[in-house]
Each structure stands twice: as C-alpha cells, then as structure tokens.
C-alpha cells in the first residue's frame, strides 16, 4: 500500500471509529447512564479518537473538557506499579524481597497464628492474603478496623494504615490465592522506605515527572477542572457528596470525593490520585511500545506476562493477572474481541483502560459515573464499537 492509499485507509478508519463511538457516547448520555466522559484512543501511537462529552458538573451545567481532572481511583494502580518496577530495575528493591525487611512492623498473621513471609511480588499481584473493605460483609475485620480503601475519607496516615492492616489475619497463605486488595497501598510504604521520600514526591520523581503527566498527583493541580462525581441511580445518576455509598454487587462502596483535599488522609496508591485522560494514555502507550523514559523494555514486557493465576477472580473467565492489570489469555472464553495479551483494568469512579499490543491499541475512557463507567454497558459497548470499526 503506497503512502496516499495508506492515508486514505487511515482516514476511513478514523471516520468509522468516530461514527461508532459518537453513537455509543450519545446513547449513554441520552439514557442518562453517565453524566460525562473523556475518551482517548491511540492506534500505533497516533491519535485516532479524542472526545470530551457530557457534563463535568451537571448542577453547574459545566461541560466536560479534554483536560478535565478526574479522581482516578484504581487507575492509580498502574502508575504505582510502574514506580515499583522502576525501583526493581534499578536494583533498589527486589520482587522477592520480604516486605518485613522494608517494613519491620508489618508481619500479619494467618488464622493459625503463624507469620508467613510476604514478598513485593505478592503485593504487586494481589496474592499476599490481604483484602479490601468493600469485598467483605459489614461485620468483617476491615470494617471493624475502619480500613479506608482510599476512596473514602480517613484521618489515618500511611503508618497508621500499615499498623491496622498488620492486626488483621491474612485470608490465605501468601502466594497460594488471589484477592483484590490493599497490596498496592502497603507497597507504597515500601516505596517510601526505598526512596527516602514521601509517596507523592516519590511517584512524581519516578513516574509522573519524567512522563510529563503534569496534572496527575495525589492532589488536584487545578480544582476548577475537577469533575463532580456521580453514582448509579434512577432515573439518573446522583451526585456523590460527603461520605456516600454506591451498591456494588450487593455491597456498598463508600466514596468521599473530598478526600483528595484532606492532607491528613494517607496518599493511597491504590485509589487516591487525580489526573487527566491525556496523562493516563501517555503512560499506557509507553507501555505498549516498550519505549518509556521510566521503564526499560524487559520491565515493560513483564507487565503483560501472567504474574498470578486468579481462577477468574481478577476480571472473569479467560483473564489472569500481570503487573498493573489483568492479562487476556482466552478471548473466546472471556467473550471479548480483544487480542490475547491485552492488559486491562478499571477504576471505581467510572473508568476503564486497556492496551492491545497486537492491534496497536491504547484506550482510556474516564467517566464521572460509578459504576456504569467501570462495569456497566458503557465500557463494553465502547470496546465492541472500537473493534467493529477496525
């Protein structure tokens, strides 16, 4: 295919993609399933689709813009993962390091009273035996110890969090199970010890600074651009205020959008950053290419390798877990058009992202609506529309 034909083909592909995605977004907004969204797609590193749609603040009638700032929730996890792998490749920490070597006060017990060895690798892959408050019933130990998920407000600093987690029995022997967990938040305490810096400064030095992610931090760089966040409700999403809760498979997940402004709350590497779609896709596409100012090629490839078997717990049948997200193993079993080797994760405030190296695809879809933007029809319809257009 000559240069002119290639340009014409790419133009037709962009037009198909725009028509498909504009329709999906219009339907989600028209049916009031989401309030607003920013969607960015790169194909082979080139912008293929960029759209800000709906409202950043419905009550103020403020439109969504491309530089709107979102509370990232678990979209923070790949950022912290990259920071940890940066320290691994420089030899400052090791994947097989015992966490207790960095955090002597962190030696949680199994139900039998024994204190097993927990590794950095197990924290990274949610296989350390830890849990999340929203994954247990209301009388569970995470509730009784008032463990903040990073989404709700707290007065605990990172040291207080580690102390509380140390007092909760592990759910299983590390390395012999899988459970979505506070592992990344414990890892953040390791990062502080390894760098000698507080977490916000460490992440800025290791990842967001070198990547030019100027609006991504544990604070809000420009509060005027911060979106209002909403929760699923009928007939339309309701604004999340104060200490609020949204049902999640029968369990309430507590959200405190104002947590980001509380200087006493621990900086949550699992759920506590704010940022823009443009910042996020810049980092993710560097992982697709393996050409990153913060990770070498072997470290980047390791994120797409299966690092933990999950039995379908991470993202359903056909998915396992890598570093920073779930890795697609069996597309047919998973019921997805994505390619094997796709890396994907989401965020509770209403976000999804994935990297499909085989198709040269990097996709970020941030919404301000939990949980429709994460696990509702919107991300599925968006994904399927992308692949139809290709």
Give the SSE string: HEEEEHHHHHHHEEEEEHHEEHEEEEHH
Q: Mean pLDDT across all residues, rounded?
A: 96
Number of helices: 13
Structure summary, number of beta strands: 15
The best one-word shape is: globular
Overall radius of gyration: 20 Å
Helical residues, percent? 25-40%
Specify the CATH homologous superfamily of the domain at 3-68 and 214-224 and 277-389. DD-peptidase/beta-lactamase superfamily
Could you say what the CATH architecture of the domain at 3-68 and 214-224 and 277-389 is? 3-Layer(aba) Sandwich
Strand arrangement, largest sheet?
3-2-1-14-13-12-11-10
In CATH's first tier, which class of the domain at 3-68 and 214-224 and 277-389 applies? Alpha Beta
Q: What share of residues are in beta strands?
A: 15-25%
In terms of per-residue confidence, which ranges show pLDDT below 50 for 5 or more consecutive residues?
Answer: none
Q: Helix- and strand-based class? A: alpha+beta
Main sheet specs: 8 strands, antiparallel
Distance between the termini: 17 Å
Instruction: Tell me the CATH topology of the domain at 3-68 and 214-224 and 277-389.
Output: Beta-lactamase
Task: Give a description of the structure.
This protein has 390 residues and is of the alpha+beta class. The relative contact order is 0.18. The radius of gyration is 20 Å and the shape is globular. Strand 1 and strand 2 form a beta hairpin. Helices cover 33% and strands 17% of the residues. It has 13 helices and 15 strands. The chain has a domain at 3-68 and 214-224 and 277-389: 3-Layer(aba) Sandwich (Beta-lactamase), CATH 3.40.710.10. The strands form four sheets. It has an eight-stranded antiparallel β-sheet, with helices on both faces. Strands 6-5-15 form a three-stranded mixed β-sheet. The protein has a two-stranded antiparallel ribbon with strand order 4-9. The mean pLDDT is 96.
